[in-house]
Write a structure and sequence with these properties.
The protein is of the alpha+beta class. It folds into 2 domains: 81 residues, Integrase, DNA-binding domain (Double Stranded RNA Binding Domain, 2-Layer Sandwich), CATH 3.30.160.390; 48 residues, no CATH class. Helices cover 31% and strands 34% of the residues. The chain contains 4 helices and 9 strands; from the N terminus they run E-H-E-E-E-E-H-H-E-E-E-E-H. The strands form 2 sheets. It has a 5-stranded mixed β-sheet, covered by helices on one side. The radius of gyration is 18 Å and the shape is elongated.
Length: 145
């Protein structure tokens, strides 16, 4: 997308050179990722995701704590979740809160590999699903909407 007045960055050095202005502005890194430069000089990575016609902006960290390569890798993971019908913001919140199964205090975790295979962890046991099984679970969950 060609944005009027958009500033495109090629690397971490371009971001490091960005000077603060009177108002916040964006430095576009590509494919919905940008650095929001604040008047205070703080630089925040952001990623826009569109799900079901609604745009959501997610934080990817601060610069220089998070490099351009790390931000792009996180963007790829977020977009992969969105394509699978997973709400990236809700998945992040659940992971941060350490989702538990029921009220029994059982540790529960779900992870998606680069191959699109799901793994479910209950306490100390991990179950690995094939891509076909993952697609079946995804369809069943989408049918419950």
């Amino acid at each position: 997308m060609n944005r009027v007045g958009a500033v495109k960055v090629a690397g971490d050095a371009d971001i490091a050179r960005a000077a603060p202005r009177a108002r916040p502005y964006k430095l576009w890194a590509g494919r919905s990722v940008y650095v929001l430069v604040q008047p205070s000089g703080a630089k925040w990575w952001r990623c826009d995701v569109r799900r079901n016609g609604k745009r959501t902006t997610l934080s990817l960290g601060t610069f220089p704590g998070t490099s351009l390569a790390e931000a792009m890798a996180e963007r790829d993971r977020i977009h992969k979740q969105a394509r699978m019908g997973i709400n990236p913001a809700a998945a992040r919140k659940a992971a941060r809160e350490g989702a538990t199964l029921g009220g029994a205090g059982v540790a529960f975790g779900v992870a998606l590999s680069d191959d699109g295979e799901l793994s479910v962890t209950l306490d100390k046991r991990t179950f690995y699903l094939t891509k076909y099984q993952t697609d079946t679970v995804r369809c069943a969950l989408l049918a419950q909407r």
